[in-house]
Amino acid sequence: MSTVAVLSQTFNIKGGDFVNAGEPACKIRNILREIGINANVIRRVAIAAYEAEMNVVMYARQGEIRLKITPHKILLEIEDTGQGIEDITLAMQPGYSTATEEMREMGFGAGMGLPNIKKNSDIFNIHSTHGKGTRLKLTFKLNGKTKK
Amino acid sequence: MTLGKIIELLNCQIISGAVDLQLDIKSAKASDLMSDVLTYSGPGKLLMTGLTNIQVIRTCDIAGICVVIFVRGKKPLIETVELAKTCKIAILATRLSMFEACGMLYSNGLKGVTITAPAQ
């Protein structure tokens, strides 16, 4: 059975744009606040969105975040075109990173992004084709047992 | 500890933002790694950092931090200050090192944010 989205919005992300990185995540957070989502869920969605966005900015040419809100869950799909991930198992290891010096100077690229996105989402799905791009599908449940 | 007391202890300069001297700060974080601030984003309204770029403010905004103190006399970039104004995040600066700033606040009773790091 398909789920009907109550609200759906897409945000573009430009690779290498460190100045505007984070704006979509803040907008998503504001949307969730406006519709009165639980503060703990908002915090997890915002952190996951921001980390995912930084990954696109750091490693891809361009990408987008698609936000869908249904009565029972929030879905975030982050898709990019870029270099993709060669070894997902390795990329999921906390501390593993291929970040450049510039990224590290921004306070990122410590190899915590993907593990942190996984930690904050209820369902974490990643698909990447090396040389083409990466797609993340994240689900955050709105009722029942959710992560703290 | 009130924000006023923190400003006094660290001899802070107020760079921008409306500073509520009575704001009650229960715990603080200190890091130059924004990934860590996001990973261990428990409660805590105050961040001390030596990084001054725009992503520090984005990170604070996402992590619910409303006061940032730049240590080691670092001055923020103009775009950092502009974004902080938009996000209603107060920016302060101290000439103390990170270690000294943390030690000063801790020894006066301000606690850190207790985190549980994953086992290695």
UniProtKB/TrEMBL annotation, chain A:
Gene3D superfamilies: Histidine kinase-like ATPase, C-terminal domain (3.30.565.10). SUPFAM superfamilies: ATPase domain of HSP90 chaperone/DNA topoisomerase II/histidine kinase. Pfam families: HATPase_c_2. Residues 28-139 form the Histidine kinase/HSP90-like ATPase domain. This is Histidine kinase/HSP90-like ATPase domain-containing protein. It comes from candidate division WOR-3 bacterium RBG_13_43_14.
UniProtKB/TrEMBL annotation, chain B:
SUPFAM superfamilies: HprK N-terminal domain-like (SSF75138). It comes from the Bacteria. InterPro entries: Ser_kin/Pase_Hpr-like_N_sf. This is DRTGG domain-containing protein. It comes from candidate division WOR-3 bacterium RBG_13_43_14.
